[in-house]
Fold this sequence. Notes:
The protein has helices at 10-21, 32-41, 81-87, 107-115, 157-168, 179-200, 204-209, 211-230, 239-248, 257-263, 274-284, 289-297, and strands at residues 2-6, 25-29, 43-46, 52-54, 58-60, 71-74, 97-100, 120-133, 136-150, 172-175. It is of the alpha/beta class. It folds into 2 domains: 2-177, Rossmann fold, CATH 3.40.50; 181-301, N-(1-d-carboxylethyl)-l-norvaline Dehydrogenase, domain 2, CATH 1.10.1040. Strands 1, 2, 3, 4, 5, 6, 7, 8, 9 and 10 form a 10-stranded mixed sheet that branches. Helix 6 packs across helix 12 (289-297). The model has no long low-confidence stretch (mean pLDDT 96).
Amino acid sequence: MRIAVMGTGGVGGYFGGRLAAAGQDVTFIARGAHLEALQRRGLRITSALGDATIAPAQATHSPAAIGPVDLVLFTVKLYDTEAAAEAIRPLIGPETGVVTFQNGIAGPEVLAGKLGAEHVLGGVAKIGAVIAEPGVIRHTGTMAELIVGELDGNASARVRELAEALEAAGVRHTVSDDIRRDIWDKMVFLSTFAGLTSLLRLPIGPIRSDPETRGLLRDGLAEALAVARAAGAGLPLDLVDRTLEAIDRLPHQMKSSMLQDLEGGRRLELAWLSGAIARMGRDLRVATPMHALIATALKLHAEGRG
């Protein structure tokens, strides 16, 4: 497959790198010092699942320099979605698929509006990974999984081809017949995980270990689940308990990307996570006091330090 990675951060760098290491034709779109390092030294992945180096790595700042591809892995921050969707127009041919592995729930609709719904696939990335330094992706823990599917739930050749490429690359993956449900499933977890780790300025270990802050986790998950169900997502009532069990398996020192952005003075995805849960809760008449508190308490940090 000819693949472009739009947003070579932790998610795009890790999974794009695994595909490239397995022989797929992958070009990384990046900028600044990260792009320079990719072009000079290649891409390096450090991971408990096995390190990898892609050298040389195909990398550019310009989608126009790549031209139409079979698949775009779209992994930019949520606040960059519209601008990035415009930027990747040169990558889009008649059969090109764009699979969004972003946080939140808004990505597929924004991309469909910009590029046409026929090009858009849904995706969920489950991983803790960051740019450790320019050209280097550091994977935390052993969780590294993708869920992909057509937005209408139908099987397709392009999803099957991607699944085959992921299998060849040794990437754990699932093909979903209800990717919108799976996107909401992650939203319930991530809005709460990102929101509370950022609010408390702590990794997940201490938060889940203290009975009172563990109660905050449960409250946040329950609120997000109630909003999801009111919005029509077919999520099970026991999802809160199952998600807490999954949280207990995360590395003790694991931080959300939003907490890392907060610590680094960067812009936050707050409006698309707890902010979105609180807004939808108001619209759907579902009480969301925990997410409203998170959204309000972090509001003054949302634009970063500039």
